């Protein structure tokens, strides 16, 4: 068996090439995991991000997302997450977004695999460029928000905040049904969750108010996000009024942002 080079920012192109070749040559999940961990660690450094791309490593790592063991998929997602810090790498990684979404949807709730996929989508959704590849999975993301652990909720909210900043996603969010949404706007909620939930709501309210033309309210059901935030918003307004007394300045700023739109 070929020895896996030690992971280091000083790893040269030859060592990285050996890791990529090893990934292509082996079907052993344990070796795949170790090679992906080494690549992931090296990809934390910008110089290696370019080297791995130029060696064709992105397609090799991306290929691990399809038929490999869950632990291998997770390590592949972690590697792609580090590699996605490079804009040129994102142009290649974006072809795997649909598969990443499938992995998130099929993975056990709150699993490391699911979280790794959400972390990658967070990076890939910072700009609007690839939102169109994620937009149909908004109901899945909102389900994870309702059902997931705090760790999952924080991670999925990062994706939701990025997507909701794009006016093109407006109707996809507003027609969604999230019965538990109002429960996130409470003083007892984890601050990191509460703040991101408020930014998410503020983005949606802004997009509603900036919409060209008249919103057709009939297209939204009574238990839709639109109804909770815009149509029958008395309960939401009461929640916001209470949050004006929250001790965190950032939370209060987002409440004011919503109330003044």
Keywords:
single chain, 261 residues, mainly alpha, 16 helices, 64% helix, 0% strand, elongated, disordered N terminus
Question: What does the model show?
Answer:
- With 261 residues, this protein is mostly helical.
- The chain is 64% helix and 0% strand.
- The chain has helices spanning 13-25, 29-42, 46-54, 57-62, 64-67, 70-83, 87-93, 97-106, 112-124, 138-147, 150-164, 170-174, 191-209, 225-231, 234-243, 249-259.
- The longest helix is centred in the C-terminal third of the chain and has 19 residues, at 191-209.
- It starts with 12 loop residues before the first helix and ends with a helix.
What's the rounded overall pLDDT mean?
92
- Give the count of helical stretches: 16
Q: What's the multimeric state?
A: single chain
The Rg value, from CA coordinates, equals 21 Å
Q: What is the total tally of β strands?
A: 0
| Main sheet characteristics | none
Q: Which geometry do the CA atoms define?
A: elongated
**Helicity range of the residues?**
55-70%
Task: Name the helix and strand elements from N-terminus to C-terminus, one letter apiece.
Answer: HHHHHHHHHHHHHHHH
Question: Distance between termini?
Answer: 62 Å
Residue runs with pLDDT of under 50 for 5 or more positions? 1-7
* Beta-strand content bin: under 5%
């Amino acid at each position: 068996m070929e020895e896996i080079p030690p992971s280091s920012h000083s790893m040269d192109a030859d060592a990285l090439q050996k890791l990529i070749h090893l990934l292509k040559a082996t079907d052993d999940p344990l070796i795949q995991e170790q090679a992906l961990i080494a690549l992931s660690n090296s990809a934390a450094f910008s110089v290696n991000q370019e080297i791995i791309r130029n060696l064709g490593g992105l397609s090799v790592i991306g290929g691990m997302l399809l038929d490999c063991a869950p632990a291998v998929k997770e390590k592949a997602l972690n590697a792609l997450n580090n590699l996605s810090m490079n804009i040129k790498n994102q142009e290649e990684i974006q072809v795997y977004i649909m598969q990443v979404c499938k992995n998130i949807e099929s993975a056990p709730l709150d699993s490391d695999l699911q979280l790794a996929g959400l972390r990658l989508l967070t990076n890939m959704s910072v700009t609007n460029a690839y939102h169109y590849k994620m937009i149909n999975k908004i109901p899945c993301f909102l389900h994870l928000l309702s059902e997931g652990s705090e760790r999952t909720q924080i991670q999925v909210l990062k994706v939701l905040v990025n997507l909701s900043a794009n006016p093109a996603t407006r109707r996809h969010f507003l027609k969604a049904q999230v019965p538990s949404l109002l429960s996130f706007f409470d003083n007892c909620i984890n601050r990191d969750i509460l703040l991101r939930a408020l930014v998410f709501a503020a983005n949606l309210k802004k997009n509603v108010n900036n919409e060209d033309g008249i919103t057709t309210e009939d297209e939204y059901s009574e238990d839709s996000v639109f109804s909770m935030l815009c149509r029958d918003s008395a309960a939401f307004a009461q929640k916001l009024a209470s949050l004006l007394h929250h001790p965190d300045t950032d939370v209060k700023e987002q409440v004011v942002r919503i109330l003044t739109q």
